[in-house]
Write the structure tokens for this entry.
Amino acid sequence: MKVLRKVAPTVAVVLSALSSTAQIKDSLNAPSSVLPGVFADPHIAAFGDTFYLYPTTDGTEGWKSTYFTCWSSRNLKDWKNEGTILDLPKDLTWAKERAWAPAIATKNGKYYYYFSADVNIGVAVSDKPTGPFKDPLGKPLVVKGALKGQMIDPMVFIDDDGAAYLYWGQGNCNIVKLNEDMISFDASKIIVFKPAGYNEGSFVFKRNGKYYLMWSEFDTRDPRYSVAYATSDFPTGPFVKAAQNPVLKGRGVVKGAGHHSVVKVPGRDEWYIAYHRFKIPDGNGYNRETCISPMRFDKNGNILPVDVFETPVSMKKVKASKK
């Protein structure tokens, strides 16, 4: 027994040391990005039995990208490049560069693609989630300088009753209900507000009757870039910021984790968050890569902190959604 008493503390010390070493190793060895190369601001969506990613093409100082791509997957791990779906110089008459932060929604049997172009917000339409997308307006949906802050980072949420809401803006969060055509709105009905810490990249989803507004804090070139959220009983607010924030942030070798989107696996209460981080190694705010991690909730519906070192479990089959 005397020997056991001496060994037990030693074992405890060794286990503690191993645990600490594992934690250090974990923070220094991040999983690979889900897309090859540098892509940022990923919008993830599920249509039918397929997931889609719509990112910003990264890798140029000043974010000078001129085109958008689409990627598809059945299991959230293996992604197929569906090619260029919107080329600003070829497909637009009003903007040629700064192709940023797209989003997609489906209604009326069509797919509506919202995007930033030269600090305006545009919309394009297609019969398929993989495009090609065409500009139905020949002008921005939201023009540069229309409101305070930058007119960037659109996101569209479609509620259970079919009503669609557009969220956008850097510096302030702007909300407006879209008309039935999905490509127009009443500008007199725009709601402008700024949650504490809000910078850009708003995203909205609904779970168990509660509306979640998420956004990115700090600047995308800042290693502290992170994601926070607030909730409301209505899609237009008022939104109350959660006590436990941010829910997504970098750790260890992962820097600048933010500008996210969220997807629910069709037929399940299972959620994933897509986001970008500084490219590993040697990344920065102009060289970012796309990642996906599970996102979970507690029994009260609060979003739990996301582990940026956790990746999705490969899925064998996804139930097709109705949309």
